[in-house]
Amino acid sequence: MDSKSIIQRFYDEITAGNFDVVDELVADDFIEHEEFPGIESNKAGVKQFFTMFRAAFPDMRMDAHEIVAEGDLICVRGTMSGTHQGDFMGLPPSGRQFSVEGFDMVRMRDGQFTEHWGLFDSLAMMQQLGAIPDQAPA
Q1: pTM (2 d.p.)
Q2: Under the phi-then-psi rule, with left for phi > 0, alpha for psi from -120 to 50, and beta for the rest, what region is 95?
Q3: Rounded to the nearest 5°, which phi and psi values hold at 39?
Q4: pLDDT (tens digit, 9 = 90+) per residue, 44-96?
Q5: Residue 93's Cα: distance from chain center in Å?
Q6: Residue 111 pLDDT > 70, yes or no?
Q7: How many Å is the maximal CA-CA distance in the chain?
Q8: Contact (CB, 8 A) for 37 and 89
Q9: Domain that includes residue 85, residue range
């Protein structure tokens, strides 16, 4: 399976709620470069992150729009979305939906992810959830 297919499968399995894919596709020596409060920067942290998100957003989706591979690096432009139905970082369920774009870059070795760098629009997410006022220009 090529690297683009592997990362697409990861997105699909996470969207389906199958977090066992982390055990299979994330290397034991994995390093997370995108810090998230209270989440470890390792393989266990990946599962912890998605478990926390799924609890807050049971319909969470990760959709890859473009996947580009170069050597051992794979970059994805994608969308994360969901409906806020559980506690999220102290924010009680609002019933609101969010949809934000982001980028993931992973390094692969022997069919497993060894490093991840990511960026998603967390400000837009929190605005869509009503946690931060929308500061649109007047």
Answers
A1: 0.91
A2: left
A3: -115, 130
A4: 999 999 999 999 999 999 999 999 999 999 999 999 999 999 999 889 999 99
A5: 20
A6: yes
A7: 52
A8: yes
A9: 3-128
> What is the tally of structural domains in the chain?
1
Q: At residue 137, does pLDDT exceed 70?
A: no
How far apart are alpha carbons 37 and 16 in whole angstroms? Answer: 24
3-state secondary structure of 55: helix
- Joined tokens for residue 102: 């982001």
Quote the tokens at residue 10: 């990861």
Residue 13 structure tokens: 């399995």
Give a yes or no: residue 16 inside a domain: yes
Angle at 131 between CA 64 and CA 58, to 5 degrees: 45
- Torsion from C-alpha of 86, 77, 14, 25, nearest 10 degrees: -140
137 located within any domain: no
**Alpha-carbon distance 99 to 48, whole Å?**
21
The pair of structure tokens assigned to 17 is 């709620």
- Compute CA 5 distance to the chain's CA centroid, rounded to the nearest angstrom: 17
- Domain CATH for 36: 3.10.450.50
- For the stretch 83-105, pLDDT in tens is 999 999 889 999 999 999 999 99
pLDDT, the chain, mean: 94
